[in-house]
Amino acid sequence: LINWEPRCVVTSAVPSLFLIMALEVCRDVSGIILSGTGLFHDVLIFAHILIFISHQGVVFTSWYSAFHVCSPSRAAMLTGRLPVRSGIGYVGDGSNGVFTDISMGGLPLNETTVATSLRRAGYTTGMVGKYHLGVRDEFLPTNHGFDSYYGIPFSCDMGISAFNYRNHSSPPFQARPLPLLANLTILEQPVNLATLTARYTKAVLDFVSAASAKAAPFYLYVAFNHVHAPNFRSEKFCGSSARGPVGDAAQEMDAAIGEIMTGVSALGLDESVVYFFSSDNGAPLSNDGHGNGPLRDGKTTTWEGGVGSIITMGDRQFD
Predict the structure, then answer these.
(1) Quick check: 33 pLDDT over 90?
(2) Is this structure's pTM higher than 0.85?
(3) DSSP label at 27?
């Protein structure tokens, strides 16, 4: 636990909560790198907003994901329970422990999520982004405590898109167009990934604006599809980083978080919102090959590079 230098304090008795989850963001890709003297910035990726959050609040440097791939770790994040207790994480079926676009199962309906508990407490709850805890209607976020959902229900490499036109061609993966959902409705298939992050940002701000109009506290789970292969990005961010596609994607996500925080500030909610930022697991050593800084190995392993992460918490953004 380092960097506790708060510039303001949440004054609301019932704060609103953002859980911002990235994909496979290791410490060097996030720009939040550990050294003997604390935090410093990756000179090849300009993650200004993530660095800002880390210096604004609290950084938990010994944070561990509950699993080394996404479905089990996300189940744990949403329930507070080890994923094995939800029956998620078995790797003997060839799926590597994650739900696919043809999975019959999902997060069990008898699991109590953070969203379910907070909704009972009077919160407006929503999710934007990658879900990856089941694709059938009964397992989607609106049946797990979320009032609304907007996003892709699994990884963006599990469906055909302009950035991933070949896709997987053997079980358990099938070559089908990547869908974008609003609650239980398919809005676009295949989704235009080049515009996805901007649409996520708009969906987040629309949700916050509606919750603010109701004068209700909210819980919003924002799960970006960055920075997972195929590392799509908008035209604005193509070639923006010296780290290549993964750096471009990280910078696009960072800019989107900045837009969200600016929008929240414009609604006058600075002193009633707490932000959490974390990642589902470590980065893979394949694809863009960005690795995990000083940590050994990466995604799909139980070494530090597979499960070691960082979570940051801050209560305000720009002065």
Answers:
(1) no
(2) yes
(3) T
